[in-house]
């Protein structure tokens, strides 16, 4: 994922900053505890496509 794209993308719910998980191909929102998938290099920024982050993932992502 291009860093320029990551700089302008925000969470569609809270408008907060997202972090990119390269291994899982997801954009993570700490505030809403959601992971948005990146499919074929395209972020899918739909709430119904996002998965909930469990507590362990959320804490690891915050570090």
Automatic annotation (TrEMBL):
InterPro entries named among the record's database cross-references: Trm112-like
Pfam families: Trm112p
Transmembrane segments: none
Domain of life: Bacteria
Gene Ontology cellular component list: cytosol
Family (UniProt): In the C-terminal section; belongs to the UPF0434 family.
PANTHER family attached to this UniProt entry: PROTEIN PREY, MITOCHONDRIAL, ZGC:162634
Protein name: UPF0434 protein CEY11_24515
Species of origin: Candidimonas nitroreducens
Lineage, opening ranks: Bacteria, Pseudomonadati, Pseudomonadota, Betaproteobacteria, Burkholderiales
């Amino acid at each position: 994922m291009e860093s320029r794209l990551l700089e302008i993308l925000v969470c569609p719910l809270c408008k907060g900053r997202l972090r990119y998980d390269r291994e899982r191909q997801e954009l993570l929102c700490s505030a809403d505890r959601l992971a948005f998938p990146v499919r074929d290099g395209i972020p899918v920024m739909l709430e119904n496509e996002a998965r909930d982050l469990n507590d362990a993932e959320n804490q690891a992502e915050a570090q």
